[in-house]
Design goal:
The protein is mainly beta and 476 residues long. It is built from 3 helices and 32 strands. It has a single domain (105-474), classed as 7 Propeller (Methylamine Dehydrogenase, Chain H), CATH 2.130.10. 7% of the residues lie in helices and 39% in strands.
């Protein structure tokens, strides 16, 4: 698939530096030739055969032997059937003869003016999340902040049925919600982080006054991201990871039966030697003076459960390993503090708003910066293997499941934009109508049907689209 090579930049804008370009390894195949030769036709003659009618009569079968044989083969047959049933190897696959139409289809737009109990207008969508079955979409709204949060927050729950979203529940919070995430396996469990650092968990199957099942003051400042990650010790269990501007990334255990939320690991990230932070532009003073940089984003590998990435204030990207964490000062006996840093990647000139591993390739990840750049890295290379420059700043990006050469994003252009990672360029020949001129800030791909995509705008609008990713990839 991808192989990384160094090459001269040809046909790109002058702001390209020295970039390692990803390309797809080719296959050499011999040319297929057909030779036509004359042939003689052989005449076939039918011969009648008399069959002894007694030969077709059934013989007595030993049912006990049949039962014993079925018992012997059943475990292996059942295993193969289960693996085939759960396999996603051909999800999204289509034959080359399928339709070449790769137009985006607009399904629905929801306009919402959110007013809280205090009379605050929360128009900005702060986070979106589909549940594990793809049947529920959650959307949180927040108020723009310049200081301490004194607003109420809210989360709207929508049911997705027959290609349409319908409002189902509303959850009110004491403070603005900054991030929400449905549980990886329990479709009714949702967690939210607030601007004040609290973590709340709800069970949507319960009555309205009993939905809140866990709440804890997890951080001292606003929570930047939440994620459910597999437990290395027991892969059937999932842990909750949370990050904050306070410089901590914390991993929590959550017991579904008791709803108990408890700290498991506590991480902070030492800065590299000053000379290793290479930036052409100086780091803002309010950030450079910090002993511990705030964590703005993180992601745990889908393939290497021990490895995770962290984006820090000031454009720093850190590769970490839970097994490599060393204890540092500042923790307690109940909650020791560890530094898991393995290596630093090339710093970015802008702030990083997102970092994410590819769901298709274990060695690849991308970052989204505030300078219109989308950078694609491989784990063993400190500088980016590919850089995608965009005309307008993107506010959100996502990898596309099962399509390793596509990523999608949205931003100030007000449209869903799709990029070819190998060619490092926007795919422009896509039929898509702009629903509104408002900037889009959030994107969420349905967990069950990746063709269903939800977009959220900065003024509270929700857009629902059907995107034929496979057809787009095939034709580009």
């Amino acid at each position: 698939m991808f192989s990384v090579k160094h090459s001269e930049c040809i046909g790109f804008e002058s702001k390209w530096k020295v970039v390692k370009v990803s390309s797809e390894a080719g296959m050499q195949t011999s040319e297929f030739q057909v030779d036509t030769k004359g042939t003689s036709t052989v005449e076939n003659k039918g011969i009648s055969i008399q069959t002894d009618s007694t030969a077709c009569q059934s013989k007595e079968v030993d049912m006990q032997k049949v039962a014993d044989w079925l018992n012997r083969i059943y475990p292996n047959v059942a295993k193969e059937l289960n693996e085939a049933n759960n396999s996603k190897a051909f999800k999204g696959y289509c034959l080359s003869s399928d339709s070449k139409d790769f137009s985006l289809k607009h399904l629905q737009t929801i306009e919402r003016n959110v007013v809280t109990e205090k009379g605050d207008s929360n128009d900005t969508i702060s986070s979106m999340s589909w549940n594990s079955t793809g049947k529920i979409l959650s959307v949180s709204y927040a108020h723009p902040h310049k200081g301490w949060c004194h607003h109420n927050g809210c989360i709207y729950i929508y049911k997705f049925k027959n290609g349409i979203l319908a409002e189902n529940k509303k959850i009110s919070t004491d403070f603005c919600v900054t991030n929400i995430k449905f549980h990886a396996t329990y479709p009714s469990i949702i967690v939210a982080g607030t601007y004040t650092g609290s973590i709340n968990i709800w069970d949507l199957h319960r009555e309205d006054n009993e939905m809140l099942v866990a709440s804890i003051n997890g951080h001292n400042e606003n929570i930047t991201q939440l994620s459910w990650i597999p437990d290395i010790i027991s892969t059937k269990n999932y842990l909750l990871a949370s990050s904050s501007i306070d410089g901590f990334l914390k991993v929590w255990t959550y017991d579904y039966t008791t709803s108990n939320l408890a700290i498991k690991s506590n991480y902070k990230f030492k800065l590299p030697i000053f000379g290793n932070i290479k930036r052409d532009t100086p780091t803002p003073k309010e950030i450079s003076q910090k002993v511990w940089r705030g964590v703005v984003a993180f992601d745990f590998s889908k393939f290497l459960s021990d490895i995770f990435l962290v984006a820090l204030e000031g454009g720093l990207i850190v590769e970490c390993a839970m097994s490599a964490a060393t204890e540092i000062k500042g923790g307690s006996e109940e909650s020791p503090l560890s530094d898991p840093v393995v290596k630093y990647y090339e710093s970015q000139e802008s702030e990083i708003s997102a970092v994410s591993f590819s769901p298709n390739r274990k060695e690849m990840f991308m970052t989204l910066g505030t300078d219109c750049d989308v950078r694609v890295y491989v784990l063993d290379q400190e500088d980016p293997a590919q850089i995608i420059y965009t005309k307008e700043p993107l506010l959100a990006t996502t990898w596309i499941p099962y399509e390793d050469k596509l990523i999608a994003g949205c931003g100030k252009n007000g449209m869903l934009e799709i990029f070819n990672v190998q060619k490092a360029k926007l795919i422009e020949n896509i039929n898509s109508d702009k629903v509104s001129k408002t900037a889009l800030s959030k994107i969420a791909v349905n967990k069950d049907n990746s063709n269903i995509v939800a977009l959220g705008s900065i003024n509270g609008q929700i857009q629902l689209w059907n995107v034929p990713w496979n057809s787009i990839a095939f034709n580009n």
